[in-house]
């Protein structure tokens, strides 16, 4: 195939992905499902050659950037607060599902041994991030979204490590402790690699001072974490997730706003094209896979039946796991409510002691490593505040039966299942049949759960929940910090700022904060009118600038600067949410 044909296929695939992603949500259908169906339809055309996507390309070239991008966007604070529950979903549930499904496959497919059956169970165990995209667009509970995001990030790695151990067991005897040791080694070494890679990546990008270079460097980080981890036989995907979490947690501190905006926009584009390409390619391979099964001893009908049973069992196992998990979260909330008052009393006493303890003089060094009383009290104060805030978070965003139902129904299979199935060794008995079963589970969950997830979310009453919280109170904290800083600001060289400059900055900042506070007081309709009018006024200013550019009456550099300022103002206005979250139907306003 010549390069022109490859280029034509790439352009056509990108156009299809864009069109499907834009139109499928309007029809209430998950775009991955449409892409798989389209791919299967394209494979029937007589002029379309057989296409085989190497699984290594997906595991090493597609999953690292996808997982890294998702990890960067994951709220690290919320991830920490629900880490135990996320760990249970992404590790314990994967192990339980793999073993139980392995026993089921061993019974349904007598021609395979138990190790191969568990390997197939590991293949269909991890959930896909597609559900997260759907429920996030619908405005579901941020806590539910975070748990789904965290699960889809970590269970990919745990399932693939278990798959690797199961495949090794098909060729040699492997003990349970060897599997546990391999899992611990793969995860531990990966974290030790991924964390410093993420940290170094942030420091390098901080020094670049250029949005395009910073984004380009972000494309390097996931592979810089993945490759050495795989060379050391650790989990490259865990290393990628660790690097992404470190990057997401530190980006606001170390990167410029321009860098973060450019990174977010570019990575969303990469996610869209890569994920869509995988589903499209898997659809194109479907009929070749069916032909291989028909040439062997199996049948498509048998594979469909096994996949349907496995899909139902996956749902039952997930329900049986999530139900007590939600109960434990409710118990955690009750326990937190009981100790909150005690923590508040401790915090009040510590606050009084901190206020009464003079801070160490500037430049004063500690002798023999002893820490000052003020510093120790401030650390205790910070710990108590964090613990109290964690309890408030759990109490304010409880997980009940509705959220549990959403967690169960959102457990769809997707990219990782399709890619992992392709990694089964070529000598595996009935390999094509097993791959087709895995494909059937992924396709079936996307079809049944993916197509009904929006309806289920609406029926549960979890659509359009208020995620703004107490924004005026949060802004008051930032106003207080600004007032304290502007009381006696100093330039980097220690000299004072001009009084007129200080007065202007103070006026501009506080005026903008007051305007943002007013957003929370406006009704939904009045806020929509405000934003609509403000954007219309900006559009009128832009039209005038463009008319001036066409007339050539002003310097082009000045016009460019003026347009940039309008763009920044428009972005700031569009990011303001008002009193209520934007309903999915209003997202284009």
TrEMBL record:
| Pfam families named in the record | Na_H_Exchanger
Q: Which InterPro entries match?
A: Cation/H_exchanger_CPA1 (IPR018422), Cation/H_exchanger_TM (IPR006153)
Q: Which UniProt keywords apply?
A: Cell membrane, Ion transport, Membrane, Sodium, Sodium transport, Transmembrane, Transmembrane helix, Transport
Source species of the chain: Promicromonospora alba
Alphabetical list of PANTHER family matching this protein: SODIUM/HYDROGEN EXCHANGER (PTHR10110), SODIUM_HYDROGEN EXCHANGER 7 (PTHR10110:SF86)
Q: What protein is this chain from?
A: Cation:proton antiporter
Gene3D superfamilies, per this entry?
A: 6.10.140.1330
Q: Which topology term describes how it sits in the membrane?
A: Multi-pass membrane protein
Record carries keyword Zinc: no
Broad class of the protein's primary localization? membrane
Record-annotated membrane-spanning stretches: 6-25, 32-51, 57-76, 83-108, 183-202, 209-227, 233-252, 272-290, 302-326, 430-448
Could you say which residues form the signal peptide?
Answer: none
Looking at the record, the residues that make up the Cation/H+ exchanger transmembrane domain are 17-326, 397-458
> Where does this protein reside within or beyond the cell?
Cell membrane
């Amino acid at each position: 195939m010549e390069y022109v044909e490859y280029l034509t296929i790439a352009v056509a695939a990108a156009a299809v992905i864009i069109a499907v992603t834009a139109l499928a949500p309007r029809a209430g259908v998950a775009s991955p499902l449409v892409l798989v169906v389209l791919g299967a339809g394209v494979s029937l055309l007589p002029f379309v050659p057989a296409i085989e996507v190497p699984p290594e390309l997906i595991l090493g070239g597609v999953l690292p950037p996808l997982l890294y991008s998702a990890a960067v966007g994951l709220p690290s604070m919320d991830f920490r607060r629900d880490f135990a529950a996320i760990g249970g979903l992404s590790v314990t549930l994967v192990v339980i599902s793999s073993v139980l499904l392995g026993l089921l496959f061993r019974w349904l497919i007598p021609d395979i041994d138990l190790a191969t059956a568990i390997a197939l169970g590991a293949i269909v165990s991890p959930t896909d991030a597609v559900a997260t995209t759907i429920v996030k667009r619908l405005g579901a509970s941020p806590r539910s979204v975070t748990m789904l995001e965290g699960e889809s990030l970590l269970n990919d790695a745990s399932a693939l490590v278990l798959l690797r151990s199961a495949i090794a067991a098909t060729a040699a005897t492997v003990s349970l402790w060897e599997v546990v040791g391999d899992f611990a080694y793969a995860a531990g070494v990966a974290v030790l690699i991924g964390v410093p890679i993420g940290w170094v990546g942030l420091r390098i990008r901080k020094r670049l001072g250029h949005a395009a270079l910073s984004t380009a460097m972000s494309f390097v980080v996931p592979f810089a974490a993945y490759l050495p981890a795989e060379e050391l036989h650790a989990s490259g995907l865990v290393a990628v997730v660790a690097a992404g979490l470190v990057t997401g947690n530190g980006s606001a501190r170390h990167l410029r706003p321009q860098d973060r905006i450019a990174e977010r926009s570019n990575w969303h584009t990469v996610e869209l094209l890569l994920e869509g390409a995988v589903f499209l390619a898997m659809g194109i391979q479907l009929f070749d896979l069916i032909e291989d099964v028909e040439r062997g001893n199996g049948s498509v009908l048998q594979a469909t039946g096994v996949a349907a049973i496995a899909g139902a069992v996956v749902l039952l196992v997930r329900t049986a796991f999530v139900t007590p998990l939600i109960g434990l979260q409710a118990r955690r909330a009750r326990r937190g409510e009981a100790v909150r008052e005690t923590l508040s009393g401790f915090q009040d006493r510590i606050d009084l002691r901190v206020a009464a303890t003079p801070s160490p003089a500037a430049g004063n060094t500690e002798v023999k490593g002893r820490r000052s009383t003020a510093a120790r009290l401030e650390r205790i104060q910070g710990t108590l505040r964090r613990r109290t805030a964690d309890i408030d978070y759990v109490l304010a965003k409880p997980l009940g039966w509705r959220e549990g139902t959403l967690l169960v129904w959102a457990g769809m299979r997707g990219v990782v299942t399709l890619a992992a199935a392709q990694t089964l060794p070529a000598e595996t008995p009935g390999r094509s049949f097993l791959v087709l079963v895995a494909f059937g589970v992924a396709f079936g969950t996307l079809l049944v759960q993916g197509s009904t997830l929006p309806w289920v979310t609406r029926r549960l009453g979890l659509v359009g929940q208020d995620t703004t919280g107490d924004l005026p109170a949060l802004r008051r904290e930032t106003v207080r910090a600004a007032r304290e800083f502007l009381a006696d600001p100093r330039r980097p060289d220690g000299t004072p700022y001009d009084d007129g400059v200080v007065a202007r900055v103070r006026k501009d900042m506080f005026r903008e904060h007051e305007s943002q506070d007013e957003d929370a007081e406006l009704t939904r309709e009045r806020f929509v009118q405000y934003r609509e009018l403000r954007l219309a006024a900006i559009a009128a200013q832009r039209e005038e600038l463009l008319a001036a550019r066409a007339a050539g009456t002003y310097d082009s550099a000045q016009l460019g600067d003026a347009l940039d300022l309008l763009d920044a103002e428009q972005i700031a206005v569009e990011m303001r949410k008002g009193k209520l979250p934007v309903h999915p139907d209003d997202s284009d306003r």
